[in-house]
Amino acid sequence: MKARLAFVHALSPLHAGTGQGVGVIDLPIAREKATGIPYLPGSSFKGVLRDACSDRSTREEVFGPDTASPQSHASSVAFCDLRLLLLPVRSVAGTFAWVTSPYILLRLVRDLDSIGAAVPTSEVPQVAMAEAAVASSESVIVHGDQVLIEDLDLAAKRCPEVEKWAEWIGKQVFPHAETWQEFLKQRICVVNDDVLRFLLNTATEVFARIRLKSDVKTVQKGGLWYEEALPAETILCGIVAASPVKVTPERVFAVLDELVKEPLQLGGKATVGAGFCRVLLTGGV
């Protein structure tokens, strides 16, 4: 088996929903039960790539047969859930910050180890509740000596480990765009896990949607609902693994590389422009 990391960069709000709402949000995004961290289900990701593969023979070799038959076989590729890596959060300085936490980075280290990929640094920044670790003291999201995101005033702390992570993530997500690599480096910050949990409940987008009566253009009874989405500029990542079932892993990743050359629509609400994403496959063995 060979594996690589898949990175998803949302160019428009991304709605990967659960299909059932609780509380005031009728259509919430999918979240891990224990941590509350948003994710894009691997099954959803696989389905989009399968549909994008127009050649039936290649599609069945890589993703498995379209329908059950005596010649059925397993897929040659497996997709893990794509979990949140960087959450864009509004900032008083620098427009927005790309926010992550020690726990999220620790899971990324674990994923990199599991696929045999090089880790940018074995150190994960540790930050207090009232701190935000940044890559540079000249970071554009630092206002005075603070990082002001959402309703939080956090003391800015320059951290060499954050700089190493910023450089590595920038090269994975923007491999051919040095301007965007620097853009990310200037806006990344690491906050305490509990602070991130607060932001995950306050920094997602919530849209009010209505359904009108076609004849009088007034709202239908029960035609008002609320949808949640991850904001544009969200970055997620997860493992993609290939096994030699019908084709070699090298052939699998060659096909996937072709399928992700152009942006893809992931998640729901495609007809209103949601889920327009860049996908990149990097690293691994």
Task: Summarize the structure in words.
There is one protein chain. The longest helix has 14 residues, at 160-173. This protein has 7 helices and 15 strands. It has helices at 42-52, 56-63, 102-114, 160-173, 178-187, 193-202, 249-259, and strands spanning 2-10, 39-40, 77-79, 82-90, 96-100, 131-134, 142-143, 146-149, 152-158, 188-191, 205-212, 219-229, 235-242, 264-265, 276-282. A hairpin with a 2-residue loop joins strand 7 and strand 8 (146-149). Helix 4 runs antiparallel to helix 5 (178-187). It is globular and about 65 Å long. The chain is of the alpha+beta class. The mean pLDDT is 91.
Task: Summarize this structure briefly.
The chain is 27% helix and 30% strand.
Q: What is the straight-line distance between the termini?
A: 9 Å
Number of strands: 15
Overall number of domains: 1
Q: What class, by secondary structure content?
A: alpha+beta
Q: What Rg, in angstroms, do the CA atoms define?
A: 20 Å
Proportion of beta-strand residues: 25-35%
Question: Can you summarize the main beta sheet?
Answer: 13 strands, mixed
| Approximate shape | globular
Which segments are poorly predicted (pLDDT under 50) over 5 or more consecutive residues? none
Helices and strands, in order, run as EEHHEEEHEEEEHHEHEEEHEE
Helix content: 25-40%
Helical segment count: 7
The mean pLDDT is 91
